[in-house]
Amino acid sequence: MILLSQLINGVLLGGYYALLACGLSFMFGVMRIINLAHGDLAILGACLVFFIADQTGLSPFIGLIVMLPVLAVGGWALQRWMLERSLRAGLLVPLLTTFGLAIVIENGLFEYFGADSRSLAPYIGDFAFDSWAITDNIYIGELAVLIFAVAVVLLGGLKLFLNYTSLGRAIRATAEDADTAELVGINARAVYAVAAAIAVATAGLAGVFLAMRETFSPYSGPTQLIFAFEAVVIGGIGSLSGTLVGGIVLGVAQTFGAQINPQGFLIAGHLVFLLVLAGRLVVGAMRARGGMHGLFARRP
Amino acid sequence: MTLLGVEQLEARHGLLQAVRGVSFGVDAGETLALVGANGAGKTTLLRTIAGAHKPAAGRISFDGVDVTATPAYARLRTGIALVPEGRRLFAGMTVKENLLLAAAYGRSGHWSLEAVLEAFPLLQRRLNSRAGNLSGGEQQATAIGRALMTNPKLLLLDEVSLGLAPIAVEAVYRSLRGLITGGTTIVLVEQDIGRALSVATRIMCMLEGRIILQGVAKEMTREQVTEAYFGLQRSRRNSS
User: Do A166 and B76 touch (CB under 8 A)?
Assistant: First the structure.
């Protein structure tokens, strides 16, 4: 019974990871940029909503509606003024740029908010810990279910958007071949800016849910980046449905790890990530060298 | 009436000067064939006209408007469409998606999904296949269809027969003849001189980034074009 409970909670936690990883996966899929500031942008979103709630007493859910467009515009500007320019200098430069941006965001937030841990939980009242009792032993948190539902709707919606709308097709075409996309009338620069806006806004959304479920500080970003990165790699880079699966695998692994040992939470997650990564490398090497026997063949 | 005007156009790839001061015009309804050896600058010239390559100097006017500084995606809206060398389809997307994508940003006009399928019936049963899984001929038909979906006034075709089986080349050129008689203005790059002479109204031969021979296709002989193609005229002139 306790295993079933852990499984359900692990899957729900996976929803959060999928939500967090969505923007990272999307940005890499479209622009081939690994955004090392992704976790910090999530925390920036959380801080913004915290600031609004703290100053005005407004519910974080209303703060969210204000924050999302702000981060979307931020993402647009980030692409136009930083990433686009750094991309011209080669593929490695955007990596350094976002690394620098991560440091700037962390220290900027530290400057204003200090090192205190904060949470949005006090601003959402009972919702932070309310749960439904399924049986005597199984409880599922209402907030966890909401986060999971948002993740499924967001990833599913994004997939439908990419497949069935004209702008979505333009994004896919640009991701595949920006040069040719221009030749069929697509303004690739504008498409990239829209993709960055979507990616950064979803990061902020995930950050707010993090802040509702637990505490955060200005330096919480890198940990979230690692979780997002693990979910993306487990699920397959650039695939949205894979991201959901990757998030769930990571969430379930962490929850079962915590069941074995309280320290096992992180270790189990990292282990599964490393196993999947090693598995992918082996499969990749096998494909490259032609089948199972190729794995043991000597390199030419 | 001159549809496309190119004046003293120069284009570079880094230090390499691919197009060196080229000037010519294309009248509406004309079919101009560009011939020349590999590296003569044909592809770069076409890409520069389409806006995919920035010119180093010179002027391009289209339909009476200077489009030299217009980016590729906006130039498409004025009515210039390029079928790039190597087809360059979006391999992960279906044929239908490739076609609809172009229609979303092009001009409105005769060409719709139905009209393209009528011109290229072989695409009918491949509509929902991924473009990457098609045969070379089908891919080329999709690439031309994609350009047509934007309802261009000027269609630029870069080596549409490259890498195709002879039977597929035949099919593609049969469709092109339909376009030409329909009045579409076409500039095409073709390695096969015989084919260029038979399909085009005018021939232009390039060598090392310059136009060294141009004229009405009917008045030119295969030998004349071949000589220009290999730069024989110049070497003969130099030796005499």
Answer: no
Q: Determine the distance in angstroms separating the CA of A105 from the nearest CA of chain B, rounded to an integer.
A: 35
Neighbours of A89 (CB within 10 A): 11
Residue B186 backbone zone (phi > 0: left; psi -120 to 50: alpha; other: beta): beta
Q: Cβ atoms within 10 A of the Cβ of A126, count?
A: 7
Instruction: Return per-residue pLDDT of chain A as tens, 300 residues.
Output: 788 989 999 999 999 999 999 999 999 999 889 999 999 999 999 999 999 999 999 999 999 999 999 999 999 999 999 999 998 888 899 999 999 999 999 999 999 999 999 999 999 988 888 888 888 888 899 999 999 999 999 999 999 999 999 999 999 999 999 999 999 999 999 999 999 999 999 999 999 999 999 999 999 999 999 999 999 999 988 788 899 999 999 999 999 999 998 888 999 999 999 999 999 889 888 887 765 554 444 444
Residue B44, classified by CB atoms within 10 Å of its CB into exposed (0-12), middle (13-18) or buried (19+), is: buried
**Bridge partner residues of B4 (DSSP):** B26, B62
C-alpha distances out from residue A89 to A97, A180, B197, Å: 11, 21, 45
A/B interface, count of CB pairs below 8 Å: 67
In the numeric block, the tokens 């004349």 are attached to B224
Q: What angle do CA A125, A130, A131 make, to 5 degrees?
A: 165
- Each domain of chain B, given as residue ranges in start order, spans 2-86+152-239
Q: How far apart are CA A36 and CA A236, in angstroms?
A: 18
pTM: 0.87
Distance CA B46, CA B197 (A): 19
Listed in sequence order, the residues at least 6 apart from A140 whose beta carbon sits closer than 8 Å to its beta carbon are A8, A9, A12, A131, A132, A134
Pull the structure tokens for residue B233. 């005229």
Rounded Cα distance, B203 and B220, in Å: 8
Structure tokens at B119: 């011109």
The set of residues, in sequence order, having a beta carbon less than 8 Å from that of A238 and lying 6+ positions away, is: A25, A28, A29
- Angle formed at CA B69 by CA B87 and CA B29, multiple of 5 degrees: 55
Structural domain spans, chain A: 2-220
Residues of chain A with Cβ-Cβ distance to B150 below 8 Å are 184-185
CA–chain centroid gap for B165, Å, is: 20
Give the closest residue to B98 by CA, choosing from B171, B150, B154: B150
The span from the CA of A212 to the CA of A218, in Å, is: 15
Contact assignment for B150 to A185 by CB distance below 8 Å: yes
The predicted complex's ipTM stands at 0.86
Calculate the alpha carbon distances from A20 to A207, A264, B60, B219 in Å: 8, 22, 48, 68
Question: How many Cβ atoms from other residues are within 10 Å of residue A66's Cβ?
Answer: 13
- The minimum CA-CA distance between A176 and chain B, rounded to whole Å, is 7
* Two structure tokens written together for A149: 């539902």
Amino acid letter, residue B81: A
CB neighbours (10 Å) of residue B61?
A: 16
CA–CA dist B103, B97 (Å, integer): 10
Residues in a beta bridge with B155: B81, B186
Its CATH class, for the domain covering B2-86+152-239, is alpha beta
